[in-house]
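Lab meeting, item 3. Inverse folding demo.
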C-alpha cells in the first residue's frame, strides 16, 4: 500500500524509466498510456489527459477530454521487462478536467459500491475468482489457430498436460507482481487450463483478475501460443468460465445475500455474459442456465460449496465468463447483495437435482440470447440506478 511519496522515491532509487498508467473501457478491456518517470510527479498532481472519444463506451468527440490519476497503492513492477530501466504499472481513476469523477470509470463505480456496503451496512465483501482459458497453437504466420496445445483432460499430468510449464511461469509472475496464486491445473477441454488465486477485497480482486488475463496472454505469447479467454472457443468442447466467489463477514446474512443475487439474476446476466458466444456456453458442460441454488450443486446458478467454518458465508456464482468487465459485475453483485440484506430477502428451497439432466420445465431460466439479456438490462431500474448510464 504505497503512498505518492513512496512511489516517487521508489521510481528514483530503482532505475524506473517508464510508468504505465492503466484504465479500462466499459467492456473491461485494459488500456494504458506510458509516461517517462520524470513526468510522474506531474501526473500525480495534475493527471494525464487522453482522448475519451477513442475509448469504447466513453464520450463523444465534442466533449472528449478526460484525465487519468494514478493510484499509488496499485504500483507493480512488470517482471518480464528489463531490470535496467524498469517499467512499472499503476491503475488509475478518471476525472473530468474540473476534477469531478467520471461516471463511467468502472473502478470508481466499484469503489463507491464498496464504500456504500461498508458505511451503510458495515459489510466488507471478499471476492475470489476462478478463471479458465484455452491455449491454442499459432500458424506459420504467427496468427492464432483453433488447434489446442494439448489433448489432456481434467487434472491430467505431463506428458499429456503440456501446459504445466506455462502455468508455473504464470504463477511465478503473479507472485512477482504481488498476486498470490493458490492452485492451477488442466481443465476438461483440450488445451484448457485454470489458475485460482487468493481472495481479497472487491477492488483488489478485480484488479488482480485483469492483471491475470494480461499475464496469461503475455506468457502464452512468449511461449509461441495464444491464450483464449472467450466463453466458447470450441463448439463441441467445454466453455471457459469466470466463476465468482463472494463472502461477507456476517454469515447470518448469507441467505439474504444469496436471495438478493437470485432476485436480480436476469438483470445481471447481460453484464456477466456480454457477448453472443456467451449464450452458446450456458446450459452445457457445467455452465448453468437456470436461476436456482444448491449445496455443492454445480448445475445451479449459485453453488454453496462444501466449506470450512472460517469461510461459512461463501457462495459461488457459476455463469459469468471472462469477457465480462469484473469491475461492473462486482459492483452490481454488491448492490444485489445489499438489496437482499436491506429487505431481509429469503431464497427459495435449494435444488438437489442435476439440472443438466432432469426435466427442468418448472425452473426459471436466465436470458437465453444476448439480445434478450440486453433488453432486460436496458429496462431495469435497478441497473440504471446503480450505473447511471
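The presenter then showed the designed sequence:
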Amino acid at each position: 500500500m504505497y503512498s505518492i511519496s513512496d512511489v516517487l522515491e521508489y521510481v528514483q532509487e530503482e532505475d524506473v524509466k517508464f510508468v504505465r498508467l492503466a484504465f479500462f473501457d466499459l467492456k473491461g478491456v485494459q488500456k494504458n498510456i506510458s509516461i517517462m518517470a520524470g513526468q510522474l510527479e506531474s501526473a500525480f498532481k495534475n493527471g494525464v489527459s487522453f482522448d475519451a472519444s477513442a475509448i469504447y463506451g466513453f464520450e463523444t468527440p465534442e466533449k472528449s477530454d478526460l484525465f487519468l490519476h494514478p493510484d499509488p497503492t496499485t504500483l507493480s513492477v512488470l517482471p518480464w521487462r528489463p531490470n535496467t530501466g524498469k517499467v512499472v504499472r499503476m491503475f488509475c481513476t478518471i476525472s473530468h478536467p474540473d476534477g469531478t469523477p467520471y461516471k463511467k470509470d468502472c473502478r470508481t463505480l466499484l469503489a463507491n459500491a464498496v464504500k456504500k456496503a461498508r458505511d451503510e451496512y458495515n459489510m466488507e465483501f471478499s471476492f475470489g475468482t476462478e478463471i479458465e482459458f484455452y491455449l491454442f497453437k499459432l500458424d506459420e504466420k504467427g496468427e492464432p489457430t483453433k488447434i489446442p496445445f494439448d489433448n489432456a483432460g481434467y487434472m491430467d499430468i505431463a506428458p499429456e498436460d503440456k501446459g504445466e510449464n506455462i502455468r508455473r511461469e504464470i504463477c511465478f509472475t503473479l507472485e512477482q507482481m504481488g498476486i498470490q496464486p493458490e492452485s492451477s491445473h488442466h481443465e476438461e477441454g483440450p488445451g484448457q487450463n485454470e489458475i485460482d488465486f487468493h481472495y481479497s477485497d472487491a477492488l483488489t480482486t478485480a484488479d488482480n483478475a485483469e492483471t491475470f488475463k494480461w499475464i496469461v496472454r503475455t506468457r502464452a505469447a512468449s511461449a509461441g501460443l495464444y491464450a483464449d479467454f472467450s466463453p466458447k472457443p470450441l463448439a463441441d468442447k467445454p466453455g471457459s468460465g469466470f466463476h465468482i466467489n463472494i463472502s461477507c463477514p456476517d454469515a447470518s446474512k448469507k441467505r439474504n445475500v444469496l436471495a438478493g443475487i437470485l432476485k436480480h439474476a436476469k438483470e445481471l446476466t447481460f453484464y456477466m455474459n456480454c457477448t453472443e458466444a456467451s449464450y452458446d456456453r450456458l446450459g452445457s458442460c457445467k455452465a448453468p442456465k437456470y436461476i436456482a441454488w444448491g449445496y455443492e450443486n454445480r448445475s445451479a446458478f449459485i453453488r454453496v460449496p462444501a466449506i470450512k467454518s472460517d469461510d461459512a458465508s461463501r457462495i459461488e456464482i457459476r455463469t459469468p465468463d471472462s469477457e465480462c468487465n469484473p469491475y461492473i459485475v462486482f459492483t452490481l453483485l454488491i448492490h444485489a447483495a445489499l438489496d437482499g440484506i436491506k429487505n431481509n430477502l429469503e431464497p427459495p428451497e435449494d435444488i438437489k437435482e442435476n439440472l443438466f439432466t432432469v426435466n427442468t420445465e418448472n425452473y426459471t431460466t436466465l436470458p437465453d440470447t444476448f439480445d434478450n439479456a440486453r433488453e432486460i438490462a436496458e429496462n431495469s431500474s435497478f441497473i440504471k440506478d446503480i450505473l447511471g448510464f
